[in-house]
Structures are given as structure tokens and as C-alpha cells.
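Case study 2.
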Amino acid sequence: MSTGVVTAGRVTHRSGTVDQLAAVSPESQDAAVAELLTVPDIEEAYVLSTCNRVEAYVVGSDHAVGRAALEEFFAGVDDEAIVTTDHDDSLRHLLRVAAGLESVILGEDQIIGQVRTAYEDARDADGIGSMLESAVTKAIHVGERARTETAINEGVVSLGSAATRRVAKEIDLEGAVSLVVGAGEMGQLAARSLAAAGVDELVVANRTVAHADHLVDDVTDETGVTARAVPLEALDTVATRADVVVAATGSEEPVLERRHLADGDATGAEPEQVVVDLGQPRDVAPTATALPSVCVFDLDDLESITDETREQRADAAREVEAIIDREFDLLCEQYKRARADEAIAAMYESAERIKEREVDTALSHFDGEVTESQREVVESMADSLVNQLLAPPTKSLREAAAEDDWSTIHTALQLFNPEFDAEDGAFAPPTAVTGANGEAGIGATDDD
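Prediction:
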């Protein structure tokens, strides 16, 4: 079990702007983990990057090491956009993220899949050790419990469906022509939501047309809507005639320019075209907002929809909070047991070395060749002595861990583990070393 502590940093939809999120978004999650692991004294790393958050969790020898690594990782944005947390708050926040309590859409389902994918990416990059293995798998377990045991994910459950509801406030979706740009997970959610809302025609534009074809086939089978797939190059012809455009790609540059969109006078009560930009970085060029006939919404503009959902799910959220409290306590107990077990293992390994030496010495005094049965008798007696002698200290060490008596475990390691270096820091849970409410080293506190 790692003797380090977890430190986390994040830029989210709550703490930063869309542009700030784009500035800190890594090229890939596994590459970001690999980068963090190059920092001296960083033992483990986990990075979660979505359109609404970039979060990094590191395990280091102490919080100063972790904060230094995170400061470099988030160097692309102002400190005010960054939230850092020490061990306990970092672990609790990760559980809240997987449960959907930190999402733009309270309780949305997409995030738990993203947490799982980030776990696989971090594991592929050798970033998952014993401490983050326990933390992330616990978070996934909490996310599953939240969705199976409460109503936290009833109603609007994704940004794709939130986008559809926001558009419906501006125009009548029944009979509308809709365009979804991007066939990734967010694009799939938006396409299905628009089709279910009664649009007359759905066009999916994607860089890889085969992916768009697959989505179109699925949506057609599910809803019967008329749908077709086109390449991104077709935006010049298909975007202008769409009543609704939802853009959700992973492009580094805008894919929808002003020339793609409706350029009328907007003399009617409704806009000629409604565009929702779910991209991060932005998929719609900023100049498009100047078009009088086009109404452009971005992630920040979905807040009104998310507020409605938040009110509807308030009771369920309280139930999820109770689940998180219990599972967080279990996670802390798991860490305590593991650290006590490491001290116990060191104690037994030390005793085993002594036992083997003394057994060999005793057998050397026998006259003649020692038989196998004689050796078994001596070794059995030695094992019995070791087990009886170590049973009371084993019980005491486990009780010490349960009672947060880390000085006892620290002393045991000094006595029985010849490689244990007391100068590396007290062998204790992070709250015993740093305090339960560690200072935030960069940017804002956890009260965002």
C-alpha cells in the first residue's frame, strides 16, 4: 500500500470558462498521466478530461509535491480558475463526480462512463497504483449505486438532451430540420434526443462518415426519423438549411464558420436558426453570434435547464450524499487496514527471517543426518512460537489503525522493516499529517 497522499486539481464548468477549459485540456488522458508521472516523487496519477472538466489526481510523498506537480500541469490558465484539494477532499470530490453531483446536468449518466475510460487510460499509462486503484474503483461503485438506488438520473440526463430542451424554448422542433455535427458520444446523445423530440429530418455530419452512418442507422431504427450521414465537407450545403444545429466534435478549431449559418434578417418572432455549441474547445466560430437570424448557445447557456433538473432531483441528491458519506468512510477504513497490514507484514517477514536462521542453527546440532520428519517437527514448533508471539501485536496494530493511532504503526515499521526510512514522513493517513482540511495550494478552494 502506498504511503503517499492524494492531491487533486481541477478546472471545471463551475470554476472556469469554456476557453479556460480548452486551454488545460490535454491531448489525451493517458498522455497527461504519463506527463505527471515524470515529476519526481509522483507515484500515481489519474486524469479525467471531459467537455466540462479537467481533473488531475496525483499520489506523492506529501501535498507539497502534489501541488507542485499540479501547478505545472495547469500552468495554461489563471490560478483563479483552478481548484486544488488535499487528500480527504480530493477523494470525496471524486466520489461526487462519479455520482453525477458535480455535473452540469445533476445526476447525468455520461460521467460514470467517462470515469471508467479515464481509469483504463491511467492504467494503460501505469498511473494506477494501490491508492488510486481503491479510490477510482470506489468512485465507480458509488456512481453505480447512485443510479440504481436513487432517482438521481431521471429526466434530463445528458447535455445532449439539455441542448434539445434549450432549443425547444426557441423554436418548434416538430417538423424541423436538424443537423448534428460530430458522431462521438455527445453527438450521439444529441441526435437521439432531437429525433425523440419529433424533428422531421436529421443530418449527422462527421469527419469519418462510417461513424455517422452507424449512428444514423441506430437512430432510424429507434425512432423512424428520416436521417442521413454526410462528411464535414458537406457543411457548406447542409448547415444553412438546418433549423437546429448541435455541434459536438473534438476539433481543436471551430468547424462551423459564419458562412455556414443562416444569414437572414430575423424579422419574425422566432430565430431563423438555433445553434448549440457543445464543443470544448468551441465548435462554432465567435463571429457567428453576430448573425441577426441565428441564436447561438454554448455550455454556459444551458444553466437554466440544469437548474430545473437540479430542483427536480434535490431529494435524490440527498440520498446520494448519504451513500457517498458511507462509502467514503469505507474507503478510509480500507486505507487504514491496508497500512496496518503493511506493518503486520513487515513484522512477520522479520520474524520469518529470524525463525529460519534459528531453525537451521538448531538442526545443525543434531547428531547425524536430520530426517525430514525431524525437520518438520522443529519447523512446526518454530511456526507455532512465532504465531503465538505475534498474535497480540497483530491485534494491537489493527486496533491502532482503527483508532488512528499511527504512531504505533510507525514504531512497528521502524522496529521490523529494515528498509523503512522515518525521514520519508510519518506513516500515517494524510489527515493525521496535514489536517483534514489541507490548504489549497493553487487558485480557489473547494467552495466553488
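The chain has three domains: 5-154, 159-311, 335-417.
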